[in-house]
Amino acid sequence: MKSLGIYVHIPYCAKKCAYCDFYSVPSCETSRAYCRALVKQIESYGKKSAEYIVDTIYIGGGTPSYIDAEDISDIVGAIRRTFKVDKNAEISIEANPGTLDGGKLAIYRSAGINRLSLGLQSVHNDELKMLSRIHTYEDFENSFLLARLEGFDNINVDIMYALPGQTPEKLAETIRTVAALSPEHISFYGLKIEENTPFAYNKTISESLPDEEIQYKMYMDTAKTLEAHGYRQYEISNFAKDGFACRHNIKYWKCNDYLGFGTAAASFFEGRLFSQVKNIDYFIEDPLSVFLIDSTEEITPKKFETQYVMLGFRLSEGISLGEYRLRCGGDFISKYGERLKPFIEKKLVIKTTDGFRLSRRGMLVSNYILSEILDFDED
Ligand code: SF4
């Protein structure tokens, strides 16, 4: 039996954050109908399901904790009815402080959800306000402690850096405060100004972003502080205590199969990469319609190889020569050895016992390195 990850997209938020370009709407009026449609779409995979064992489920969004917890429980139930779910499956849900309470957390636990990902971003209330987050740091702390009380022993906290006006000292305070709470996992992302978001049209925001040198310091200092607190960096933006790396996200970086359910969800399944249209109403109207597929691409061996190297270098362990041969065929060194040399000399790429990985400095310029070594235009 092949292992499979399942992603479920919940496209509802209490309010849109000014920097966010994920597909979600600031209301949950249609969430019940949407969840019923999700159950139908999940159940339609009944015939395929016998070949797979689901070992990770990730309920993301949007803000899944914004909608009724019973609806979330129904979705997990539909997955369990349709697929064989491993008894040790990692089942994550994204949640925002300000949308959680003990009742919801208890329902998640009884549905078997065992990992909670809390969107905090900063411990400074002025920064949260500037990002137009709906919560304060105090709300986050309450949610975190409530989750511990309800038995969540695998919690991720999202933190953002390179915020407008942010100083390395302010960021360091965020990192120290969160690390002191000892969540099992910390995701640490740089703010990107995405097109068509309120931030993209705000000159004051773009003019107050920390420059590259400061961003470099923020990244390097944070990685060191987190390591000193017992977190191991396992991916460009992710740190975890031993045994708590996110198994679902590792599937993406290792090019393993995953199926996405719901509007805007992407899948990498049976040699195809496909995503669903971003339209809640269409989805509710007919979740089984073939017209919901927005784009579909057959993954040729060449495309798979490019993807495998591109995503594999995001991981701290990098690319293993043996695993590369197994997954992509061919010899990694004869294809990439020469191309990697200048980066090895600059210590941006490091030779490991069985392959190559990016150094932490290399991770910061990973896009540049990859654009130099990969053949993006070949089929
Ligand atoms: S809560 Fe998350 S998904 Fe919703 S708007 Fe904010 S950043 Fe985007």
Strand order of the largest sheet: 7-8-6-5-4-3-2-1-9
Low-confidence stretches: none
Element pattern in H and E:
EHEHEHEHHEHEHHEEHEEEHEHEHHEEHH
What is the second-level CATH architecture of the largest domain?
Alpha-Beta Barrel
Using brief descriptors, characterize the structure shown.
single chain; 379 residues; alpha/beta; TIM Barrel; 15 helices; 15 strands; globular
Give the topology, please.
Layout: E1 2-10, H1 31-43, E2 52-61, H2 69-82, E3 84-95, H3 102-110, E4 115-121, H4 125-130, H5 137-149, E5 155-161, H6 168-181, E6 185-190, H7 203-207, H8 212-228, E7 232-235, E8 238-240, H9 247-253, E9 258-261, E10 266-269, E11 272-276, H10 280-285, E12 293-298, H11 301-312, E13 319-320, H12 321-328, H13 332-345, E14 349-352, E15 355-358, H14 360-364, H15 366-373
Parallel strand pairs: 1-2, 1-9, 2-3, 3-4, 4-5, 5-6
Antiparallel strand pairs: 6-8, 7-8, 10-11, 11-12, 13-15, 14-15
The protein binds iron/sulfur cluster.
Précis, in short:
With 379 residues, the chain is α/β, with parallel strands linked by helices. It has 2 domains: 251 residues, Aldolase class I (TIM Barrel, Alpha-Beta Barrel), CATH 3.20.20; 50 residues, no CATH class. It has 15 helices and 15 strands.
Give a description of the structure.
- The structure is a single chain.
- The chain is of the alpha/beta class and 379 residues long.
- The protein folds into 2 domains: 2-252, TIM Barrel; 324-373, no CATH class.
- Helices cover 40% and strands 23% of the residues.
- It contains 15 helices and 15 strands.
- The protein has helices at 31-43, 69-82, 102-110, 125-130, 137-149, 168-181, 203-207, 212-228, 247-253, 280-285, 301-312, 321-328, 332-345, 360-364, 366-373, and strands at 2-10, 52-61, 84-95, 115-121, 155-161, 185-190, 232-235, 238-240, 258-261, 266-269, 272-276, 293-298, 319-320, 349-352, 355-358.
- The strands form 3 sheets. Strands 7-8-6-5-4-3-2-1-9 form a 9-stranded mixed sheet, with helices on both faces. A 3-stranded antiparallel sheet has the order 10-11-12, with no helix packed on it. Strands 13-15-14 form a 3-stranded antiparallel sheet.
- Helix 1 (31-43) runs parallel beside helix 2 (69-82), helix 2 runs parallel beside helix 3 (102-110) and helix 6 runs parallel beside helix 8 (212-228).
- 40% of the residues are buried.
- The model has no long low-confidence stretch (mean pLDDT 96).
- The chain binds iron/sulfur cluster.
- Iron/sulfur cluster is lined by residues 13, 16-17, 20, 22, 24, 61-63, 96, 119.
